[in-house]
Predict the structure.
Amino acid sequence: MGEHASRIRNLRALLPHAAAYAASGGSLIVSSAAQLLTFAILARFLGVDEFSLFVAITALSNVAVHLCGLGATECLVRRVARDQAIYATLLGHNLILIAATGLLLLVIGAAALPFFFQVAESRLANVLLITTMLATNIVLVRAILFTEQVFIAFSNFGAANKAVMGFALIRTAAAALACIVFGVSTLQGWIIWQFAAHALFLAACVAALRPLGPPRFRIVREELRLGLYFSIPFILKAARQNADLVVLSLVTSAEIMSSYSVARRIIESSYLSVDALNRILYPGTARASAAGLHHASARVGRIFLVALAISVAAAVAVFLLAPVLPYLFGHEYTSLVQFVRYLCWVLIPVSCWAIALEALGAAGHQGSRGAVLGGGSLLGAALAAWATWYAPPEGTIISYYVIEIAMTIAAWLVYFRVLAKSRNGEVSIRSGVPAE
């Protein structure tokens, strides 16, 4: 009877997490579906040339957005999850860094990108439109994503889920209205619609955060280094994710490059099933590991098993549903189904290394986390570029798996190394012997 009662208590304890995951996962699935629909609408209505221009500028923006704010959102989630009284200071810290770095990135982008991309015939209009697109995809996106992280820091996952879904749905609504209703078929027309939709949703985010209190504007100096550790790997990861696309555009046909890029978007969206798990458990892992990573090791082990099961299920689902995709994106993407089925299994190693790195981040080991992400991304970018140049597209696909499996091995080796140091440190303190 005692064992039976214990199992019932354990099941009851899991119910809140299961409900939170269902809500979080559902919101991210809706968000992912909306993003794919937006992608499909723009691909159909902008045409090959305009859509390729949109993808190119967006790809560069996706790298820059990780520079905007210098990774300060992570410290807000980590520290507010432990002590909500520090929220006002970290809110001000984030706003200062987002504004300062965002302005700098806009100036650099406005000066450089018009030499490489032509959105409008007039030079002035070209500069203004590209700057507007950069402001949308870097500054406004960073501010909107920051809103979601604030709610996660307070473990208000309902509000975080609404932010995720609302952001995705308003972009889909904007694309549908612009292209289907108003007949927008050029990138310069879409840039205005995109900016308006993002600005409108950001206003709603500001209103949602207002009850939490005003910011206290000051820089938290001790978090600058950790923020850089957190953001730089994501910048390198974004560069790695675009290296194969750049080389493919040089050495293969437009159809193969387009189909591969769409397949990549689908695989990245499918990872949200694991990301939903990480986002609801990160604050709890931060609290559990406050006195050392070893205090959260059992929790990390359980999270890993759940994430592994979810990633396998997601990969199988993507494989089975792949034949439906041409009806959404267009039958001119003749290689799409094949690429998706080749790439879907990469979800498994990606979810494996993500759990180890999320645990390191939650415990405050941003240097170790950054070393794995940064080193893996730097070497991965070189490998992906070389393999794509040498044997496209087969080399591209093989390099994708080699990179992610290597990342898994490296992430867990570093995790166990840090875990051992954490345990040894506590044993030394208890015994009165100085830790090495």
Notes: The radius of gyration is 22 Å. Residues 427-436 have pLDDT under 50 and may be disordered. The chain has 15 helices and no strands.
